[in-house]
Amino acid sequence: MKFSVEEPEKIQIYLEIAAFSQVPCVFYPTDSSRSFEGILEKVDADRFGLVFKQWIPAQTGLLVIRSFTLQFKCQLDMEKGERPKEYTFPPPQALSSHDPRKYLRIPIAPQLTKIVVVKKLNEQGEPFSEGPDKKLIQGAIQDVSANGIAFKIANPDPFFVPGGQVHLTYKLFGLDVDGPARVVSDGGSLVRCQLSGMKPALQHQLNQKITVSFQRMLEKHHRDLLQLIEASAHLRDIERTKKSTGELADRKQLDENFVGLINPILDAAVNVMEQMAGLKLVKREIRLERICSAIYDLSSQISFQGPQVDGHLFLCLKQNVACSMAGTILGGEYSDIDENVRDMAGELCNIIIGNAKKNLARDQVYKLSTPTLIVGKEHLVAVLSKYPVVRIIFDSPIGQIDLNLYLDEINEKLRTESLTPAGFEYKTELINPILRATENIFENFLFLETRKKGVVMRETLAPKFELSGILDVFGKGMHGKILLNLSNKLALQIHEILLGVEKDTIDDEVKDAVGEMVNIITGNAKGEFERMNLGYNVSTPYVIYGRNHIISNAGDNPFISSVYWSSKGFFEVCLSFTADE
């Protein structure tokens, strides 16, 4: 099969995907019988680079790269780069594939599963008249070309050995394929067949449609890739800023939008605590911090979005303070953080932000999420924001009470005014766009094999791992939360992929990477939700770090949770959506 690419934009796409995937390339210098392995990198908008493990005898030659599912060759005339054994070059004028197969083969995405009906044939090419081989079986198509197909069956079948004859029937890209084929190979439940006797006109039509579909798939993968590259650049900017200043810029001079929101929240907190809990709060200090330096046992969180700013409010308490407060408000004695204590904290946070809204100008209308409750001995809270947290520390007769306010400017206005949900109900199917986006990002761009272990509903989340990245969703017709919970090993691996820096401990940069991942996944699923007339905007991600933390949703809806195995560790994806009243 020959697959040539001459359009500059498409050449750029293939090279960017190859550079991000870090799959080794092979360079064959002119007039040399040797080959040299190197890694492709993107230097800037106009140039790419090759970094070799050793010196090469010539800078002109043939480069072989793998991009997406194809192998390409191109002629290069390189220049020496800034680093030793590095060479740079502009994108070539053409890429050509040298796949030994006659036709382009395209994978079928799991969410677009196509079924093939298989009828077994005897040596004469005729259907069996009796016996176990007479039964029709079905398979899920894995990939396909104009003259070949690979499909998976439920259980291995001894009939499928090389040379076995079958009759295949399936519909693909609007075309009906119905004809004989010969088994080429089998791998247990995976069977590969070569079509035979297909009409040339149908084969040509099918090949054209596969090629067009391949290009669309490639463009979508490229959009996803650019999102990851942008996330990597964002994390690097944060890292550079922290290295140059010691921390994120403190933004000492908060503009009037921020001050106009902080003061009503501060006043509301003082009034609510005095009226409901009989506590006179004394403001000790206001700090600006990258993450909350204090450690807590119970945190109640609400996200909000408004015309100038959006952000998160956290009411953070130690166990003894939370239990004492619950005893005053609810009556009785509490020694542990149980459901009543959690509900009390969630309602307090809700009342504080609700009271603060009354003191805002009429044009300052804020959308509010339902409270999220985090329970865990000595957990830390961090938000992936370009601004630090405003940490307001209060002293009270029962101990210290912290209000942590993360504020950020809205970069994109909610674009859902014209979207009207038709009979929206809370359904488990709403998790599918998120799960598909997760699988796509992990498998196609982080290059980590994943396997879903099942989907369950949970009233309260007790994440299996220490790191949880969370964001709140605001939309026309729905609101909710999306959570990504990772093992430490997997979080470190993702940070290394995004930033190219190997770490062995969980620090601020790793937490930022986890926050970016949940942001990317949610953005990736946005298009599919919009097709369901459920467009949305999202909050800034926030990250919870601590052993055995528990997260509960103060709304009526449970979390839908799916646990995944990956080649670098386990992770969990959870969401809770509800319809707006």
Automatic annotation (TrEMBL):
SUPFAM superfamilies: CheC-like. Residues 133-208 form the PilZ domain. It comes from the Bacteria. GO terms for biological process: chemotaxis. Pfam families: CheX, PilZ. PANTHER family: CHEY-P PHOSPHATASE CHEX (PTHR39452). This is Chemotaxis protein CheX. Gene3D superfamilies: CheC-like, predicted glycosyltransferase like domains. GO terms for molecular function: cyclic-di-GMP binding. Keywords: Chemotaxis. Residues 300-394, 468-560 form the Chemotaxis phosphatase CheX-like domain. InterPro entries: CheC-like_sf (IPR028976), CheX-like (IPR038756), CheX-like_dom (IPR028051), PilZ_domain (IPR009875). The lineage of its organism: Bacteria, Pseudomonadati, Acidobacteriota, Holophagae, Acanthopleuribacterales.
